[in-house]
Write a structure and sequence with these properties.
Elements (H helix, E strand, L loop, with lengths): L4 E5 L3 H18 L3 E5 L28 E3 L4 H4 L10 H9 L2 E3 L3 H7 L4 H6 L3 E5 L8 H7 L4 H11 L5 E7 L5 H6 L2 H14 L3 E7 L2 H11 L3 E3 L9 H15 L4 E4 L4 H9 L3 E4 L16
Parallel strand pairs: 1-2, 1-5, 2-3, 4-5, 6-7, 6-9, 7-8, 9-10
Helix pairs in contact: 1-6, 1-12, 7-11, 11-12
């Protein structure tokens, strides 16, 4: 029986998508028996199959979908260890797996040029991840993530008011301190003012988790701004589904302006092959992704 290495997706929507794409690239290029499990955790109270069509992707001779929802006792075994569950999942994982990499380690391992292929080939390996660890391509994303018909319908409705020149703006706030500190609203309004002067048919699609930002841009740019009327939340299926619609709507624009430290808009840019500029105080516009994106 094939001994799968298991990767547990953590973090928000963009982080999960980039980790899965990274894992798929690793498995496909190196014929590794990897499987990716989607679990419901804080900040992601939504099943994979509530957002995307059930995966038919296989790697090698495996008969199991490459990515799927955790089921049955897997939901306990692979849950994020917390005080509430007495950190029992971590104990169970240590008893079953000989080699484990946890999410916070991956940045340091990437910097050190860690050999993930050799590590996975040991067998009995488990990784929890919100950061990618292997270069991947936009086609890996499109292979793994096919939005449901309902999500596609809602995206079409959301984009129906686009002009020929619609730009995407993603302003991350709430719990993302780096985006708050390094990507203030003034950087976005400076860019949008210039865009408005240059393009008379400018339309702005705004994706944000902050109601005050919605109000400010609506007051400044009026009907040029399109946005979701729903309040952003990551604690319900409805909220996460709307976030996916936001991501897809950004992917259909001609240029995206994003916030520092967030993977949401870079993933949208990869999905739509759209140029992206990260607006931040130091002007670097860096993107922490192993998928090549335009800056």
């Amino acid at each position: 029986m094939t001994q799968f290495s298991t990767i547990i997706l953590e973090g928000g929507l963009g982080n999960r998508m980039r980790v899965a794409a990274s894992a798929y690239a690793m498995a496909r290029e190196n014929a590794l028996p990897l499987r990716v499990l989607w679990t419901s955790q804080w900040g992601m109270r939504c099943r994979f199959d509530s957002l995307f069509e059930k995966s038919t992707v296989r790697v090698g001779t495996s008969t199991e979908p490459f990515i799927r929802d955790a089921r049955g006792l897997e939901r306990l075994f692979f849950a994020r260890p917390t005080v509430k569950n007495l950190h029992l999942p971590r104990l169970l994982q240590r008893l079953r797996y000989r080699h484990i990499i946890h999410s916070p380690q991956i940045w340091h391992l990437n910097q050190a040029g860690f050999d993930y292929e050799t590590w996975f080939r040991q067998g009995h390996t488990l990784m929890t991840a919100y950061r990618d660890f292997c270069p991947w391509t936009p086609s890996d994303l499109s292979t793994l993530f096919r939005p449901t018909a309902e999500v596609q319908r809602r995206t079409d409705e959301r984009c129906s008011g686009y002009s020929a020149y619609t730009i995407g703006v993603h302003i991350r706030r709430t719990d993302h301190q780096q985006a708050i500190d390094e990507s203030p609203l003034s950087l976005f309004t400076d860019v949008l003012d210039r865009e408005a002067e240059t393009h008379g048919n400018l339309c702005i699609y705004l994706a944000t988790d902050d109601e005050a930002t919605k109000a400010a841009l609506r007051q400044r740019y009026g009907t040029r701004v399109l946005m979701s009327d729903a309040e952003a939340t990551r604690e319900s299926t409805h909220g996460i589904r709307d976030a996916l619609v936001e991501m897809l709507a950004l992917s259909r624009t001609v240029h995206i302006y994003g916030s520092a430290g967030s993977t949401f808009s870079p993933i949208a840019a990869c999905m739509g092959d759209v140029p992206i500029t990260i607006l931040q105080r130091d002007g670097k516009g860096t993107i922490d992704l192993l998928c090549p994106t335009k800056t």
